[in-house]
Task: structure prediction
Amino acid sequence: MRIALVTDSTSDLPQDLRGRLGLRVVPLYVNLGGAIYRDWEEITPTEIFQKVREGAAFPTTSQPSPEDFARVYREALEEADHVLSLHISGKLSGTVQSAELAAQEFPGRVTVVDTQAASLGVGMMVLRAKELLEEGQSLEAVLAELERLRRDHFVRFSVATLEFLKRGGRIGGAQAFLGTLLNLKPVLTLKEGRVEAAGRARGERKAREEILKAFRAWAEGRKRIRAYFLYSGDEDAVAALRQEVLASGLPVEEALVSELGAVIASHTGPGTYGFYAYSL
Result:
């Protein structure tokens, strides 16, 4: 069976990589200053942050319509027997619901997966699915592996400010940080698809130490780990974290470093950095 992969733009996979792998990506939208932009295609995080600094209202984002997905599914099914469609957590966006509505037009030919992740958490599952499909694995085997990754992966990230998450309503259990930061760097995670607090540290270096400590605990006993590093704005912080992770003595392979796209960056703000990882 020929299986086509579809994802959405919040997977934050670089455009050249998408092209090389033949991935179909449905963009989300950013509303900034009364104009609507397609994520990864018509606006960058740098442009968003600059406009906010200049006094523009904070951006808002919206999911693709079911029609957006139906159009891509229709095109994919002209070349494939089935579509596997992987998307950002349904607790962060209505994207997966739009995909599910569109899938109803193609009974038995589209499988939609809520990754319960965001950014490279989605991206790493897309890349893993692509790898397995190229090995000739069945749809059932790929779905079983995606479920394993959904249950068992590592994610930590830090943001320069919680203001973007707060305004976007995606803050979840990290709400407790508000009003108590006082130069503390929040360390955040995603738990069951929502942003949650995972710790706090005074300063950038301590935040990296907190992330590395949590990673060591998760990595114990694992033989092979793939890491996916993400950042927005300044690459220095993620470069320092990446160096420490790769020099940790743990069996880590760097799989990808990618800047956040405009939609995810609209909710995390500049100065975000962190990584996802899973074990083989």
The radius of gyration is 18 Å. The CA atoms of residues 36 and 42 lie 9 Å apart. The mean pLDDT is 93.
